[in-house]
Amino acid sequence: MTTVTNGELIASAERVLHPHTVGDRVFGNVASALVTEAGAVHSGVCIDTGSGTGFCAEHAAIAAMVTAREYRIAKIVAVWRNEEGALHVLPPCGRCREFIRQVDPGNLDTEVVLGMRNSVTLRDLLPFNEWPSPLD
């Protein structure tokens, strides 16, 4: 089990949070950090592009993890800073929840950070994760 606290993981994500505007798009305004079962920390940022070709910060952090040949996520977080400078922890969107699950089935037990003192397992966020049985 990981010894990285929610606050430490949030700070890791915050360190790579550097929004950059290109035209009407913003890159890097959401950042994610994860810690693997082996204890490695990986981070990434979102890339907002047109026509659905961009990706979420969680995808970038997971891609860095997979590049390092790791697949099991112990804990993950995403953060965003509003115009007033307040930092927010964001729950993963449905696409990210499914992506985390598909990288490794054991990731259903990933701890998803929702705040400094609040987290839940991916299993709790994605309760209907098994392929359904055929209709009678």
TrEMBL record:
Q: Which InterPro entries match?
A: APOBEC/CMP_deaminase_Zn-bd, Cyt/Deoxycyt_deaminase, Cytidine_deaminase-like
* Origin superkingdom: Bacteria
Q: Which residues form a coiled coil?
A: none
Q: Which PROSITE patterns match?
A: CYT_DCMP_DEAMINASES_1
Q: Which family does it belong to?
A: Belongs to the cytidine and deoxycytidylate deaminase family.
Q: Provide the protein name.
A: Cytidine deaminase
- The species this protein belongs to is Streptomyces glaucosporus
